[in-house]
Specification:
- By secondary structure, this protein is of the alpha+beta class.
- Among the domains are: about 90 residues, Orthogonal Bundle (Helix Hairpins), CATH 1.10.287; about 70 residues, Urease metallochaperone UreE, N-terminal domain (HSP40/DNAj peptide-binding domain); about 30 residues, no CATH class.
- Helices cover about 20% and strands about 30% of the residues.
- The chain contains eight helices and 17 strands.
- The protein has a four-stranded mixed β-sheet with strand order 10-11-15-14. Strands 1-9-8 form a three-stranded mixed β-sheet. Strands 2-7 form a two-stranded antiparallel ribbon.
- A hairpin with a 2-residue loop joins strand 4 and strand 5.
- It is elongated, with a radius of gyration of 41 Å.
- The N and C termini lie far apart (about 100 Å).
- The relative contact order is 0.10.
């Protein structure tokens, strides 16, 4: 005789809950509806016979004392198919009708803002089309003076039972009632405006406050401003997703702004003051004498507002020293004179450390033309 405990994979000291869980797990894997293999069906019979014995305190006691209680009595008094389905589906009982009033879905709308609006915040008036409660029936779905009636097919249960035969006998399953779609009630006189759904499509205007510091991908949640649910159920949430449009000359990196400016060789050498355009309007920027190309000048508090915590980031001005391309003979003579006055020699290359100090000189570096001469 097979060991029922081994078949279910439990210890002999296992309690009823452990035995039930073990059988339920195996039944889900081996049930004929899941795996029609004949060998698997035989295994399903084994675990069902084992569960029949071990789930009944008296039969289990007789089995532990050497009795032969087993599958022969399956379906008879003490253990019927309802017990199998109870273990397989996790408990019997009617699931009951589903409610007509259900929560609505969330909605998503995308809004474009420019860099100035993203930095300082703004308000928008949005026109949104979504499901709203029917004003004619108030969300009930019924015509005036009427109400839902109990379904005559399922008697309000919301489901009907169907019997079929299988290798283990009659199988009873429950399905949503086709007459009432599982609601348990029928609307015989539906509202003409919403056709019994309790809601209609309509366009509404919503004001949204966009906080300072938002950027592309940020979402603003507006609770209860999404679609109203069927049967006048509570509305979902509305999510406003931000799309920031690119700026003409300012590049954004989080709360930091970047701006590239070009200065002449003479201005970079002698120093100058530039006027730049920023989100705060015209700003003066001091370029110190001897500024090199690629230098960065930081303007604190002139960047984008921090989304959380307040305050603003920085605006970094990147300096590009522009070398003149065409010179007059007079300008060339002046530059040659300037170079000579500094002791610079033609072809000399100066290599700098990052701290700006010369650490070596490579002399007599002859420049080659495009023909390699």
């Amino acid at each position: 005789m097979a060991d029922h405990y081994s078949i279910l994979g439990v210890e002999r000291e296992a309690d009823q809950d452990q035995i039930k869980r073990a059988y339920r797990k195996l039944a889900r894997e081996l049930h004929p509806d899941v795996n029609p293999d004949p060998a698997v069906q035989d295994k399903f019979k084994e675990i069902t016979a084992a569960y029949e014995v071990l789930s009944d305190p008296k039969k289990r006691r007789d089995y532990d004392n050497g009795g032969a209680a087993g599958f022969n009595n399956f379906g008879n008094a003490g253990f019927g198919f309802g017990d199998v389905m109870d273990a397989f589906f996790g408990g019997g009982g009617n699931r009951g009708p589903r409610p007509r009033m259900r929560a609505g879905q969330d909605a998503l709308i995308r809004v474009q803002v420019d860099l100035n609006e993203a930095c300082f915040g703004t308000e928008r008036e949005l026109s949104v089309e979504s499901a709203v409660a029917c004003t004619v029936c108030g969300g009930s779905g019924c015509a005036a003076g009427t109400q839902p009636t109990t379904c005559e097919i399922c008697q309000g249960r919301g489901e009907t039972q169907h019997v079929s035969r299988s290798f283990i006998g009659q199988v009873m399953t429950s399905r949503p009632c086709a007459q009432c779609q599982g609601f348990g009630t029928v609307i015989k006189s539906p509202c003409r405006e919403c056709a019994g759904d309790g809601r209609v499509r309509a366009r509404q205007t919503i004001n949204v406050k966009i906080p300072p510091g938002v950027e592309t991908g940020n979402r603003i949640q507006m609770s209860g401003r999404g679609e109203v649910g069927p049967g006048g159920g509570p509305a979902g949430d509305l999510y406003v997703e931000i799309l920031q449009t690119p700026h003409d000359f300012l590049a954004r990196e989080g709360s930091t702004l970047h701006l590239a400016v070009g200065v002449s060789m003479a201005a970079a050498t002698l120093g100058t003051t530039l006027t730049i355009e920023s989100l705060d309007g015209p700003l003066p920027v001091t370029v110190k004498a001897g500024t090199q190309s690629g230098a960065a000048i930081s303007l604190k508090g002139k960047g984008v507002t921090h989304l959380r915590g307040g305050g603003r980031g920085e605006l970094i001005v990147h300096v590009e020293v522009q070398t003149p391309i065409k010179l007059t003979k007079e300008q060339e003579a002046l530059l040659q004179k300037f170079a000579k006055s500094r002791g610079e020699k033609e072809g000399e290359s100066l290599v700098q450390r990052q701290d700006g100090k010369f650490f070596s000189k490579f002399r007599d570096a002859k420049l080659k033309d495009s023909r390699g001469r």
